[in-house]
Design goal:
Length: 419
């Protein structure tokens, strides 16, 4: 095998497994409230609007602290900062089991958002520091694939744990937060031992392999579109705001699916909580399969725009179809699976855009800004969805999500990129 093939193989096998597992834990702890809500809302007398508010407040803390957290990662290194993030978010997620009112839920979800704020943009920045452009789409996609795994396995696992209701005088939803929060705390110690701050520290690369990788990364850094500019200037760049709005409108549909899918499936099928959690995993299985193939094609393509826009449009079509197929559960679930796959397939190609434009602390800030603005939808999407459907069926809410994704696809088509 040539040098490039050997280095890429080592990068994917040595770095991605731990990073993917951490993101798996991240999204389990972020989204398990969706399954927990099947009994928690009734136990705590929380309305659909209040639940939407609680689910969404995570993203207010997430948005406010994303940029400073990512700048700290760039300054201190991934090993220390990501390990600390894991420890804090795992502790807070576990403490969600102690909430007794909607207002306490609001506080704990906000704090969880603060704790997790730097993880996702931090990993995007971190992967950009290790993977050359030729492998970036696959790296970002495989990392993001952990989200689909977490929603698939996590939903089923949460559904099983939910049946522990009454054990040790705890509600099932309390067991969900306890059993799924502690692993992040334990993983923080593994991350501190395993994560490396730069290719120079990689003992699993030979000296010649290190030299080739560092040279390749330095060449791409020197040829980035916007190199060594201040964070203030980054905030003024139209490219940053263009990408941010694409991500904002995309995530409105995406997070609407994440936080409401179990309840939508339950209404459509009339199944019990365990079967609902199993059925809710199907769209994420479809998404994982599609992501794997799309990533391979996208990495080979010189231009990535269509690999962002087309999946978004497909996702919007899936949501529109879902609004009219509620009386046909199998067809409706198929439509939601198409939508979920569309939402997921575009993310890997999307993140290649900012990673090619910026580098260093400036790059960390740019990625964090785009991620922060994009994740505002994590608050507004679930909350508006909850308000829209209050006392009604899910149809109108799905139309709202589909419209937002259509806007995202149109904005993606307007992206400009250089070969």
């Amino acid at each position: 095998m040539d040098m490039k093939t050997v280095v890429f193989k080592k990068l994917f096998t040595k770095l991605l497994p731990l990073i993917m597992f951490m993101y798996f834990l991240s999204f389990v702890d972020r989204a398990n409230i969706g399954i927990a809500s099947l009994t928690m809302n009734q136990d705590l007398n929380i309305s659909t609007a209040a639940y939407g508010m609680g689910a969404g407040l995570f993203f207010i803390g997430y948005v406010l602290f994303g940029v400073p957290s990512n700048v700290m990662l760039a300054k201190l290194g991934a090993r220390k900062w990501i390990s600390l993030i894991l420890l804090v978010w795992g502790t807070i997620s576990t403490c969600t089991m102690f909430v007794t009112t909607a207002y306490e839920l609001y506080v704990i979800r906000f704090c969880l958002g603060v704790a997790e704020a730097g993880f996702y943009p931090g990993i995007i920045y971190y992967l950009g520091c290790w993977f050359p452009t030729e492998a970036k789409t696959r790296a970002f996609t495989y990392f993001h694939m952990s989200l689909a795994v977490s929603m698939c396995v996590g939903n089923v696992l949460s559904g099983i744990i939910l049946q522990m209701d009454g054990i040790a005088s705890l509600h099932g939803w309390q067991w969900v937060f306890l059993c799924e929060g502690l692993p992040a705390v334990l993983c923080s110690f593994v991350a501190y031992s395993v994560l490396l701050d730069s290719p120079k520290d990689a003992k699993w690369l030979t000296q010649s392999e290190k030299d080739w990788l560092i040279k390749q990364l330095e060449f791409e850094k020197d040829n980035s579109v916007m190199n060594n500019i201040s964070i203030l200037k980054v905030c003024k760049k139209i490219q940053v705001w263009h990408l941010s709005i694409i991500y904002l409108t995309l995530n409105t549909g995406f997070y609407g699916i994440i936080f409401w899918l179990p309840q939508i499936v339950k209404e459509m099928t009339g199944t019990n909580n365990t079967v609902t959690s199993l059925l809710s995993a199907i769209p994420w299985i479809v998404a994982m399969i599609c992501m794997y193939f799309v990533a391979g094609y996208a990495d080979q393509a010189k231009k990535k725009k269509l690999f962002v826009a087309v999946p978004i449009f497909i996702g919007a079509v899936g949501l529109f179809l879902g609004t009219y197929l509620g009386s046909f559960p199998i067809l409706a679930l198929s439509a939601l699976s198409i939508s979920t796959a569309g939402c997921e397939c575009c993310v890997g190609p999307f993140w290649t855009f900012p990673s090619r434009m910026f580098n260093g602390i400036t790059g960390a800030a740019a990625i964090a800004i785009i991620n922060a603005i994009g994740n505002l939808s994590g608050f507004f999407g679930p909350y508006i969805f909850g308000v829209v459907i209050s006392g009604r069926s899910f149809q109108l809410g799905l139309v709202f999500l589909a419209v937002m994704m259509t806007i995202s696809g149109l904005l993606a088509m307007a992206l400009k990129e250089k070969i």
